[in-house]
Amino acid sequence: MKKPEQLLELRRREMVAKLKRYGIANRLVLDAFLEVPRHLFFDAAALEFAYKDAAYPIGWGQTISQPYTAAFMTTLLVERCSSGKVLEIGTGSGYQAAILDVLGYSVFTVERVVELYERAGALFSTLGRHIDCRFGDGSLGWIDEAPFDGMMITAGAPKEPESLMNQLASDGCMVLPIGDSSSQHMTVISRSGKDFRKEVFQQFSFVPLVGKEGWHDTVF
Question: What fold, for 68-219?
Fold first, then answer.
């Protein structure tokens, strides 16, 4: 009979195998998802959901993204920005930031829910992850640490936030979902000097990017 730790590792391998079947082919991304134990970002009572290919609520109206969604976003970033300084907006459980850390980025992450910010920061310390975490309005970015080579916004925005655009490095790229409150198209914005180029991909559904340059709390 397998021990709980062995079962969780087996489920993680099954999750990564499913990502491959769904079309995630980047070896660096697959290895990162294999290395980071997703169950560590779940409460003990919810471990059975840790490796299901579905989003899961983590409180305060937020979720930990579906593994495929996280892997899709990560692939878009890795293929356009393989190293450097990355800003994540929407720390949430901390899982996506840990994936980026394993990939070798210098990770900065902003969370607007103070309870999630505190919990993720404590978990990063426990796991020995060198991730800079800040509490605040993610739609405004992190001006003191700009510019960033890459950005990943893990919440749906009505449009690209101007502050984040301005904080991109001259050859940087931003991955974010843009749309309305029900669904968004995954979008990549690449910067070249003062010029920006947009690529639009398939539809997803995210919690809203709430903030001065996102949605207002009163809308939801």
Answer: Rossmann fold (3.40.50)
